[in-house]
């Protein structure tokens, strides 16, 4: 910066030395002073000395201010870069709760701090998800592994025979482990390939009708009624297969928790400007209030013992939430309590006339 100031001052000095003498002599002539007189020489000498002194002081002060400004800005930038460097090192070391304060040096530095903080937040969320998944996986594997271990130990000790009942217990525990592994692969595949959605124009009525048709036989086999309620044909742009998976999961969950003679109803209605909701309501077991916030967590089951025997692994709703979020929507659940049914609501962006025309 000081070099720039010196360069600018030199250029100004050069221009002044080329123009100032002519202007000075012109003014002497206008004042009636002879250019060759002693008086003119004295005035010119005084003018030159004052100009040189003024320019020298101006350049010196400018250079000093430039150096001070450069030093101040350099120190601020160095401190900010040092903070970012230290923070990224902390993040690389696994301290994902580290955050970088805004250096207030301009938009670029603020964007850098925001990007580092967002990176830390995502890594923290990923790490928390990994730890939770490993903990859940260990918890889910413990029971079937303990069953297999105890039965094999009993066979080795001669307490039990390898009869049909024992084989069935061992096969059941093995199949549960296989199902758990498949569920882990399924939810990981969904979360890793959410960027591969293929949205196409359709309507919520078409999505609901297709889901009901696909599930009708399963509901009939159990003796649970399945019907469509209000079906407003609201235009949406979704991946039809993935949204079919979402509604299929919700219908399977409703069927699993609705006894014979119960009913499940699916509605689709607009809920505001540019939004539409699909609701799956059942007359089944219902859910206590303290369970509602956890229903979309991996492996979470309201009734752990019932879930083991009915085939529910607690992974379907986690997949449902991931798919709905990938479509820019949200999914929620409500219940008036045990024995009073449950309502799952999927809210999606609706296609406007302008959006359809642009597509």
Q: Output the helix-strand order.
A: HHHHEHEEHEEHHHEEH
Residue share in helix: 55-70%
Strand order of the largest sheet: 2-4-5-7-6
**Biggest beta-sheet profile:** 5 strands, mixed
Number of helices: 10
Number of strands: 7
What global shape is seen?
elongated
What name is given to the CATH topology of the largest domain? Heat Shock Protein 90
Strand content: 5-15%
Count of folded domains = 3
Work out the radius of gyration: 38 Å
Can you tell me the CATH architecture of the largest domain? 2-Layer Sandwich
Mean pLDDT: 78
CATH class of the largest domain: Alpha Beta
Can you tell me about this structure?
It is a single chain. The chain is an alpha+beta fold. It has 3 domains: 2-92; 107-192, Helix Hairpins, CATH 1.10.287; 199-358, Heat Shock Protein 90 (2-Layer Sandwich). It has 10 helices and 7 strands. A hairpin with a 2-residue loop joins strand 4 and strand 5. The longest helix is centred in the first third of the chain and has 55 residues, at 38-92.
